[in-house]
Every structure is written in structure tokens, then in C-alpha cells.
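User: Show me an example of a complex going from sequences to C-alpha cells.

Assistant: Sure. Here are the input components:
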Amino acid sequence: MTSIKKASVNSKKAFLNYALVIVFYVVFQTLVSTKHITNSLKGQLIPITCYMIMAISLNLVVGISGELSLGHAGFMSIGAFTSVIVTSALTGLPGIAKLVVGIIVATVIAAIAGFLIGIPVLRLNGDYLAIVTLAFGEIIRNIITNLYVGIDGKGVHFSFLSPDGLGMEATGKIVVNGPQGALGYTKLATFTAAVVLLFIVLIVVQNLVNSRTGRAIMAIRDNRIAAESMGISPMKYKMLAFTVSAAMAGAAGAVYALNYSMIDPKKFDFNTSILILVFVVLGGIGNLTGSIIAAGVLVVLPELLRKFGDYRMLTYAVVLIFVMLVTNNEKLKGRIDTFFKKLRMKISKGGRKK
Amino acid sequence: MKKKLLSLLMAGSLVMAMTACGGTAEAGGNSGSAAAGNGQLTGTLKLGVIGPLTGGAAIYGNAVVNGTSIAVDEINAISSDFQIELNAQDDEHDPEKSVNAYHQLQDWNVQAIAGTVTTKPCLAVSAEANSDRVFMLTPSASATTVTEGKDNVFQLCFADPNQGSASAQYIADKKLATKVAIIYNNGDAYSTGIYQTFKAKAEELGLSIVSETTFTDETTDFSVQVGDAQKNGADLVFLPIYYTPASLILQQASSIGYAPKFFGVDGMDGILTIEGFDTSLAEGVMLLTPFSADASDDLTKNFVTKFNEKYGEVPSQFAADGYDCAYAIYSALQFYAAKNGGLDVTGMTAEELCDILISVFTDASFSADGVTGLGMRWDKNGQVNKEPKAVVIQNGVYVGM
Amino acid sequence: MLTHLINGISLGSIYAIIALGYTMVYGIAKMLNFAHGDVIMVGSYASFCFMMYKNVPVPLALLLSIVICTVLGITIERLAYKPLRSATSLAVLITAIGMSYFLQNLALIIWKADPKWYPDIFKDTAAIEIGGAVVKPVAIVSILVNLLIMITLTLFTNRTRMGKAMRAVSEDKGAATLMGINVNSTISITFAIGSGLAAIAGFLLCTTYSRLEPTTGSMPGIKAFTAAVFGGIGSIPGAMIGGILLGIIEILARAYLSSELADAIVFGVLIIVLLFKPNGLLGKKIREKV
């Protein structure tokens, strides 16, 4: 009986998230087509959507599977560079086909990377697991920083540490140029494509969470030993969540990269991983709606605070600490709750008087 | 009195001879709306600057903005007929933020951009500006890829290859060394670009390159790089890098008692201003730079004095580039106005202005003077042509070579 | 080879001193103090300012920076971490990251982004030659300082009342409280010691590399944190061994394998070690209870 009730609540929540994405798309698409939107907000729509996908994807690992990952930007980076190489290598296809193929290949490669990295990572627990994901994030960045890829008439050439090993024809073009990143490729991403991807990601995650598999993953999170004794293989289910999450991060990275005409490997460092983790934590661990909203708000916020210059990041840090203290300290939480209660009572009283 | 003198100086020396520059200076007395048809430049130009104003690379962005705003103040003081409104946006040296900054400027109806300051963000923004048709003159993003295939993007600074080959040429001509070591930042398009052309030119001129080592922005320990140069007996170390890592390399070399000649490029400018740096380490360092704050010409003196008055420091290369950017755009507009019987920029779209500026910058008879070079000309690719100056550090100051 | 080895031990010693700060705090408060690297940076700026602007003699400047860091460490703990003692470790982690951003951006506003040149106090001392290897004086000093700290800390935790209290709190907070140990002040003292050590590490780090900027503490912080995990987080000798090994691996990788991939190699070794020893080299195995 209770399980049925829970399931219906879940599907209600899931429906809410779909509605949220649709409203987000319709509102902004209308604003864009009627030109009622500032250039700065318009320019941010695609990155915002990518960060939303990143937040959902990380939430699958941190919230649903219960493992702290500090290297999620690494998978985004793999997706980003894969898509740039793939779309540059595909000639003669229409833009939309290139985009779709680019995203799919990026997703697959990121999933493979997630699986391979998952093998060592998921053997560990707690803080050790966190530090190893951090280490992998840095390793990915370090490797991509030394990767050179060129394309000529014969196909795609790879070289490591130096562009000298590419051995290209004179007409060849370097697509990924080591620490300087990838540049000079065609922008293909559109807001519609990004939102479609966000929608697909939501469907995948929500169906996963509400399935038998999802319940197994959460059972392992809540009590590993109990779950194991029920015959659930922790490694298998954790691996599934980790790989799916990496794949989605790769897809987000692909759209992100194809929204610009250059991409810098430095972008996907520890700070970006943390940024996404902050979206997840502030949006509520395990709460997908929260992740979507937090990602949206926290990406736009720094742009709105532009005029504060140097003080912008300082304010951001203070707000972050403050929010964590307020939401996690029982005493403060209680005090603020009573404050709001009083406020509400005052307001409703005031309303009655009128 | 002083102001008048300065404006005369500005008009006389900065603006090219072929524009009606004398007329501009006199135009200060004319009433507000100069009649179109007399070759006057009128109206208000909305000029945007994009660069890192906060974060780790803030020093470069702020220098450019400060330099630009001094030029804008001077231009605005020349005549009330033509004014420049300046809007500087921060990009934190991040391509994503830089594109955001660019969109912010578009919301402000920017007409032309003096930016962006750093190379990677510039690559991201210039692609957007190219499809939107917004004119860009970058003060300091020197990679060839910045201008490649974009007819609307021009550079005020040397493109990297020019610096590389000029350095090799100089070293070979003056017979400074036979065995050369190169230490460069392979995370930096600027450094890698200079390295590649330097190497090609050096080999062509018969210099032997005995050691090539790299580092990235995160490197703090240069013992391996300097050790390699020493081991291979290099008598000159070429440093196509910025001054901060250069200072660490000089320190490392001194600590192991290795004393080759050091040769830098314009990024080396600023090494004497590092707070706490023992300038005796930089004694004898040579560098090719288009700007030196110690130059004795009137233009440089005026700029350095004003900059020092306003910001309390000696302007860097970047400040000088920013200063020249504003003047180059101003000169180009005047050039057009003189040729086409006047120009009122108020309310023009960025696209219209873009076409005008491209036509002037690619006009073979257009040249501009500034503190980073006299008679700067631009080619169809957007690269600038000017003479580098070689200086050597002696007793803590630059001395011309 | 020997030069590289000594340089590696020297860099490792600095990592070890930083790692001690991580490991002691982790042992007692069970939290990853991500802001630790930035305390190093603040300490370095403090000693820099005293030396350059106030002409304070070097030992006094160092002492003052230790005091400043100690106070900073206690303040951070009281303001940001203490209210979260019963919160999830993730909440504490994010708060620590927030604190790290705060310190970095504050430094950016106060001291600006352009790097400062940290004075070389051993400028007039000649390079030291050991068995044919030429090393900088600061390298030897780092190693000696590290040894001294190691011995003092071991004596402190084993012999003094306070040290025993710290061990008790790290073993079992509840039992320690019952034994009349003031858990809060013990945690504060741990933060104080860790932060004081950070000031020393910052001084050595900046003297070695001459460069000081608001992000100076970030990468050494992450590496030292790695070193602490490497040696077994929570263990003092573990931090020491982890730090020194990490330093040696990094310098040797840079010299003989590839300077571009040195960081990847360091992190790669960490992963391999953790696969075989999931709790680090000297970490205690924690039994899971059903």
C-alpha cells in the first residue's frame, strides 16, 4: 500500500519536472522569437541548460547513489572535446545531423570513461572515493591539456605531448591544440537542442529512480550491508548510476562546447566540478527540481552582480556559507522558521485587519 | 594653457597628417553640430572594452582599461563635437564569461569594441562579433588565430609570428649567440606562437637551438627547464613568455650560478615592476618591445605622466596598447569623415560602423601613430605593421640598443 | 639524481607540513578543511607584508604570521564549522569550499592579482653541496623544519594532557566528553595548531618558489590533501610519509618522465595506492558494523 502511494507521489514530482522544463523552454523561446530578451540572457540560455543537465547528472551520483564525486567536470570535458573532434571530422552532413552525431558519440565516450574510472573509484568509500574522483578529474584535464588532434584529407590524427607527432598533410587543420584548447570549429548548438537533451536526461533519470534498479541503488545508499544481504550487488548498481551520470555529463559537455567556437581545457577544472556540486547541494541533495532551479539561478546570478566587480565572488562565497549554515544548523534553522512563522502570522493578521 | 597645449600636441602628432586634424583642433570653438560635408567627425561613439578586470589576469585587463580611458579623456577634451562613451566589462579571462560580457555590451548598444584583452576569450568573442558584424580592435590578443578568417577583427599588438622572427633576426644580426635555449609556456597561444616562428627563423639563420623546454601557467618550479638549458651549454636563453614566470627563471638561473644572456619579447615588459623583485637579477636582460615607458618622445612622455598622475604607476605594455586602440579607432573615424565629407556616429548601428572601420583599416593610405609605434598600418588579415624596439635592462632601467 | 631526490624531499616536507593540518583536523573533526590551502596563502601574505612594508626582521615576521594564521584558523572554525558539527559531511565540505572562495577573493581585493615576489632570505647563503649534489639552502631548511615539527607533534600528542585529549576526541567523541574532555576547545586547538603550521609551510613554500599570489595555496593545498589521504588520513606519521613520497614522485616525474604530465602521474600513483590500500598507507581499517 505504502509503496503504491510513494510511486504516485514520485510520478507527480516527475510530472512537475517535465512541466518545469517545458515552461522554461516555452517562455524563453517566446521571448527570443519576439525579441523581448536581452542579449546577455539570450546568450546564456544554452550554457544554463548545460549546467542544469550537469546538476541532474551529478545529483544521480551524489543524491541517488550517495557517492561524493569531485571530478564531474572531467566527464564534461571528455564530452566537449569528443564532440568538437567528431563534428569537425564529419564533413558534408547538415548541421543538425552533425550535432546529433556529436552528442551521441560524446555520450558514448564519456560513458566508457565513466565505466573505466568507476572500476577503481567505486571500490572505495566515503572521503577516499571523493579524493579519487578529484584525482581523476585532474588527470583527465592534464591529459586533454596535452592532447593534439588534427584533421586532414586522410582522416583524424592524434598526438600526445606535442603537435609534431600529428604527421598531417600540409592542408590539415589542427582541431585540438594541446593547452590552447580547441578552436575554429563551427558553432552548432541551439537552445531547442539543449532543451530536448535536458528533457531526455530528465526522462532517463526519473525513470531510473522510479524503477526497480533505482530502488536498488537507493537501498545500497541507505544501507549497503542490508542491501547486499538482500542479494543486491552494490558494485553493479553503483556502476550503473556512475556510468549513466558520466554519459549525461558528456552530453552536456558536447552541447556546451558546440555553443562556442573555442573551448579551453582549463575550463573543466576542480572549480567547475565544485560549482556543479554547489548547484546540487543548494538545490537539495536528491532533489531534481532543486538541481534544475539552483543551476539556473546560480548561473545567472553572477551576471546580474556584474557591477560589483571584485566583490561579486566574495558575496557569492558569503552567501554560500550563510545558506549552508542556515539550512544545516538546527538552532539557526529553528530560529529562522519561527521568524517566518511570525512574519506569516503578522501578514495574515494585517490582511484580516484590512 | 596646459590643456590647450596638450590638445594641440594630440592633434598634431597623433592624428595622421592626411585627416583634417588641424581643423579638428580648431573645431573646438565651433558650435555643437558641425555641418556634414565639411569633413567633420561628430556624435557620440559607444566604445566597449572586454578584459579580465577581476581574477588572476586582472592586471592586464585593468591596464588596458586605464590606458584606454586616458585616451578617451584626451579625445573628449579635444572637441565637444565628438565624444566617446566607454564601457568596460569583466571576463575573468574565461571564454564563457567573455561571451557574456560581449552580450552585455550589445545590450548597451555598443558600436565598436577595443578588445578583448586576452587571447582565449578573444577567440570566443571574435567569432560572435564576426557573425554579428561588430568591429573589434584587440589591444593585446596576439595569436594569428584571433584575426584569421575574420575580416572585422584587427590587432593593435604584433601578431606572434612577427615577434618570433624579428627576435631571431635580431639575435642573428647582432651575433648575440650561437647556441640558443628556449623556454616557453605551451599553455599559452602567445608563447607557443612566438616559439614556433622563432624556431623556424632561427634555423633558417643558422642559430643552433640546443634546448627546448616548456611549462604551463601552474608551474612554479623551473629547475628542470633552466637545468636543461645549462646542461646543453646554451649561451642565450630566449624567453617568449610573460614577466612573472620570467622572473622565476632568472632567479633559478642565478641560484645555480648560470649566467647566459636572456632575450625576451614584449611580455617581458613589466619585470621591473614586480613588487619585491630583486631587479639586479634582470640586469642585462634584452627584450624586443614596441613600447617602453622610458622613451623620450613627447607622445610617450605625455602618456606616462598622465597615467602616473591618474593611477600612480608606470603604464605597462597593455596600458599603452589600450591607449593606442582608442586613438586608432578615433583616427580611423576621422580619416573616413575627411574623405567622405563628414561623419556623425550617433545612433549608427554597430554593423554600419563595422563596414566603415574595416574599409579604413584596410585602406593602404591609412596609418596611425601611437605610443607603441609610429605609422602603424594594417593588412587585409588584420595584422599590424610596426617596428619593434630592442632595449636592454641596465641599472634597473631600459636602455635602447 | 641526488639533487632531484633532495629537492623532492624538500618539496615533500612542505607538503607534509600542510598535510598535517588536513590530517589532524580530519582525525578530530572528521571534516575535509578545504580552506586550509588558503590559510597558507594568508599566512604568506602576512609574513610578506611584515617583511616588505614594516621591515620586521624575518623570525619575528614568521612568528607574527603564525599568530595571525592561528587566530584565523580558530575564527574560521568557530564561525563556519562549529555550527555544523552535527550536519552531514557534504554540508561541511561545501561550507569549507565557500570559506576557501571567501579567503581567495578577499586576498584578491586586498593584495590584487599580480604576483608578489617573496623575498629570498637565503639570498646571501651559498648553495649547499652534498655528495656532489647542489641544493638550495631553503631545501635543507625545509627538511629540518619538517623533522622538528614531526618530533614535536609526536611528543605533544603522546606525552601532554592536551595531546592525549586530542587523541581521545579523535577515537571517540562521546566517550571523550564523558571523561570530562572539552571537545569544542580540543577541536579549536587542533585548528590552531594546523593553521600555525600552515603559516610555516607558506613561508617555506614562498621562499622556495619566490612567487606569491591569491591562488598560491590552492594547488599545494590539493596536493597536500592528496598526501594526507595517501598516507592514511587521520594519521600524523602517515601525513609525513605521504607528503615526502608525493614530493619525491612529483620532482622525479617532472625531471625524468614529463614535466607536462607530472600532476597526472602524482594523482595516478595516489589512485593505485588507494586501490591496494583503500585506507592509505598507514590508515586504520574501519570495520563496518551491521
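The lines above are the inputs; the final block is the predicted structure for all three components together. The CA atoms of residues 169 and 176 of chain C lie 5 Å apart.
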